[in-house]
Amino acid sequence: MTSEPSTVDTPLKKLVGEKTAKALASHLDLHTAGDLVYHFPRRYDERGEHTDIRSLDVGEQVTVLAQVQRTAVRPMRQRRGNLLEVTVGDGSGGVLTLTFFGNQAWRERELRPGRWGLFAGKVTEFRGKRQLNGPEYQLLGDSTDGEAAASEEIEEFAGALIPVYPAAAAVPTWVIARCVRVVLDTFTPPEDPLPATVRAGRNLVGIGTALREIHRPSSKEELYRARRRLKWDEAFAVQLTLVQRKHRAASWPARPRPPKPGGLLDAFDARLPYELTPGQRDVGVEIAADLATPHPMHRLLQGEVGSGKTVVALRAMLQVVDAGGQAALLAPTEVLAAQHYRGMLDLLGPLATAGELGAADDATRVELVTGSLGAAARRRALTEVAEGRAGIVLGTHALLYEGVDFADLGLVVVDEQHRFGVEQRDALRSKADQPPHVLVMTATPIPRTVAMTVYGDLETSTLSQLPQGRSPIASHVVPAAEKPAFLDRAWRRVREEVAAGHQAYVVCPRIGEGPASEEEPPREDDNGRRPPLAVTEVAPLLAEGPLHGLRIGVLHGKLPADEKDAVMRSFADGQLDVLVATTVVEVGVDVPNATVMIVLDADRFGVSQLHQLRGRVGRGTAPGLCLLVTEAAEGSSARERLDAVASTTDGFKLAELDLEQRREGDVLGATQSGRRSHLRLLSLLRDTDLIRDARAEAITLVEEDPELDRHPALAASVAALVDEERAEYLEKG
């Protein structure tokens, strides 16, 4: 270990020793002094204030500040030796039992009533009591038992605010705090990357002060100022990245695709069997203007399930075809690609049958390109695409493969953007001579700050009205464990709907036997809960039990593509009464006759996912019903989440709730990139004003210095916080 000055690049082994550095690296991915000082506390405990033990969830890895209330030693029943039980409390009535196995008399002497400490472990439950088995702990000096907090071991906790770090079982929070103290004693902060004018104008403290105060706050006021500065750095880095991308994209050339009077689009509008909503017309005008410019459109089209995004996208595609180009729609699944294909053929009629008898004069061709096409059909489709006769091309990521060539790709429409990687998007875009126009569609409502932070380089259009004729959807929580009769009633309701000539979905979180996949959560639950219900197990039970005699089909992502399409077609044609499926039905599946959906183990789905799922019913004239079946206990966070979904169909309210319950890093690409998120403090929900201010400063700075050439320290800081991989993720959303 060294007492020489350290910088952000100094290896931790020089500062904290080889053994500790190895633990920090292997368990927390912390390698340098910079990594450690940017590993911020998750929260701060205050001596004399309580951690709310009653709010802890079973299965959670926690560190709690608590006081020993009593200890008890009793013999173990199953084996020789004693069990030490220590009851600790937080001062507000919440208690937790600590259990230690084996003969550990020294621990009983150490954990005397009155001692305060930090206790870390995984919350379990035994006979209705919450407990930590064999937790790690760090006792704090406590004047009540006459000991002074003077030892070096607990020096890092001498302040009023005790930092609690994101930790690992092998590296508890107090070890991290000790290492941070060692590093800060010799740490030379980097040059402040933030321009002095921005710092002064926004009243932000310097980077050195912020890094010291966030770890060892001298007061709550100084901690607030430190957190505000470090949040600003995160928001500013993201906004600079997005504003730069938008600035560069505005200078790219693209082929204008202006509207053509009397062309395909006008003919399509004339044959539409219904009127466009005012929202569809307004968004259509925005998109038409974008397509007519010599720079590529980058527009996000968001709208609730059933708001009519597909028709808006089809009208944009027809404008491009009228202008001599081709348009491609990328769908996340073959089921959805095939459904778009059938739907567009129905809407276009003779306008989609160029070269066939009875085709309209201006007709084009619509081609479906998926991985399951036979060799002959694939060759024919690829020829139509390559020679330009297919004006509209629909497909999955199969469109990205070698051998799919376009004559003149003018527009890329990406449906349900969050399901595609950036590399896939770029691969499709690279099939054009010049960057094509891009329209991104999502049915997941996006809170304003997420739109600003994740889609900040896209113009945004929103469809808020539902087309005429759409029916309301009622949602109810079915507490299966507390009231099994409610579940029986749910199955009777399915039979009633089928008897009335309607159809039903039953959604499960898991496919069945075999390894986990994206639509297949892990089978085993760390907290001892049973595995999630599976499609392949539930379907036969329903067929033999409550839905006996009904025509039941099964749909999930592991079925061969032709089988999936056949099942979906059978359901759409009314040849099946009930479809038991995974979330493969979440996006875009459109069967107007389906009126009821039962979601089993609903607590295992996210808020936005549940909202998407229930949008599959009520798509016709009959009202829709969504029943959320759960065994989650009343009052639990999972149950409250489901109650919130049942209480409103306002997707934007639910999107805010979803954001509250997700880590910011998930929103900003940490999970997708498989790396730690560098955005650790910024809350997209709570820091709206700060994000807005950071964007305003970013726009001003990029207009003056587009590539940040005059601000090299800032450019390096942005690159560290938002590396190129994450910058691309931000573009993708």
TrEMBL record:
A Pfam family this chain is assigned to: DEAD
InterPro entries, per the entry: DEAD/DEAH_box_helicase_dom, Helicase_ATP-bd, Helicase_C-like, NA-bd_OB-fold, P-loop_NTPase, RecG/Mfd, RecG_dom3_C, RecG_wedge
Keyword Cell inner membrane recorded: no
UniProt region (Disordered), positions on chain: 510-531
Gene3D superfamilies in alphabetical order: Nucleic acid-binding proteins, P-loop containing nucleotide triphosphate hydrolases
Any GO MF annotation of the entry: hydrolase activity
Keyword list, A-Z: ATP-binding, DNA damage, DNA repair, DNA-binding, Helicase, Hydrolase, Nucleotide-binding
Record-annotated Helicase ATP-binding domain positions: 290-463
Coiled coil: none
Residue ranges of every copy of the Helicase C-terminal domain listed in the record: 486-660
SUPFAM superfamilies given in the database record: Nucleic acid-binding proteins (SSF50249), P-loop containing nucleoside triphosphate hydrolases (SSF52540)
Domain of life according to the entry: Bacteria
PANTHER family, alphabetized: ATP-DEPENDENT DNA HELICASE HOMOLOG RECG, CHLOROPLASTIC
Entries under NCBIfam families matching the protein: PRK10917.2-1 (NF008167), PRK10917.2-2 (NF008168)
UniProt name for this protein: Probable DNA 3'-5' helicase RecG
Organism: Micromonospora purpureochromogenes
Lineage: Bacteria, Bacillati, Actinomycetota, Actinomycetes, Micromonosporales
